[in-house]
Amino acid sequence: MQRPLPTVQNRLIDSLPAEDMGLIGAQLTLIDLERGRLLYDPGDRIDTIYFPHDGVISLMTLMENGAAIESATIGREGALGLMAAVAPRQSLSRAIVQTPTRAARISAGHLHEAWEKSPRIRDLVDRHTEALFGHAIQSVACNALHSVEARFCRWLLTCHDRISTNTVALTQEFLADMLGVQRTTVTAVARALQEKGAIRYRRGVVDIIDRTVLEQLGCECYGVIRRTYERLLPEESPLPSPFTGKGDRSP
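Predicted structure:
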C-alpha cells in the first residue's frame, strides 16, 4: 500500500538540506512493510533503496545447509541498499522485515542521479557504509564471544531504539536464527530474562519491562554500535539520535 509521502522520519533523509532534498523528494514514495516481508536475497540486484521510519530490517547471512544468522540490522538511522546509489549492486545477504515499518523508497537509478549531483548525499552514503560495516564486524565479535543472554539483550535494546512501542513481535524461528541457537535455547534465555524482570515473554511476543536491566545484562557491543551510528548525522542536526539510551519506558 502506497500513500503520498508525509513528513519523513528517517534520519538520513531528515538530515538533507532543502536543496538536496529537492533532488529526490519527488521520487520518494511511502510504503508499509509488513513483518516477514522478504526484500532481497543474496545475489538479487538492488533496484530499490528503502529508508525505514519506525521498524527493523534484518540482514541475514545464509549458509549452504540452510542455517542463517543475523549480521546487522537497519532502522530509521539508515537505509537498505544504499550502496546501489553509487553503482549497480547485488545483495550480499537476505534482507527481511522483522518489525512492521513504514519506509520511504526510491529507485537506485534516481538516487544515483542525485548522488552524482550532491556532495552531501555522497557523504551520507560514505558515512552509512562505514557505520553498517562497523555494525557487521561488531556483530561477528559479539556472536563469537558473548553469551546468548547478552546478545539477546543487545538486540532488544537496539530494536527498542528504533520502534515506538515496548512490545516486539518476534517468532521463535527468527530469534533462533538471529542468535544462532536452537529454539529451546531461545525459550530458556527468554524465561531467564523474564525472571530477572527485564521482559515479559509470550510465544511470539516480547514486552520490554525494564530497559535498565537489559542494559546491565547486555554486552558492550550495544554501546559500540550505538556510538558508531551517532557519526552518521552532523552535530548540528536537530534530530535526537534513536540510539541514545532512553531508560525505562515501561508503562
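Summary: The CA atoms of residues 98 and 243 lie 18 Å apart.
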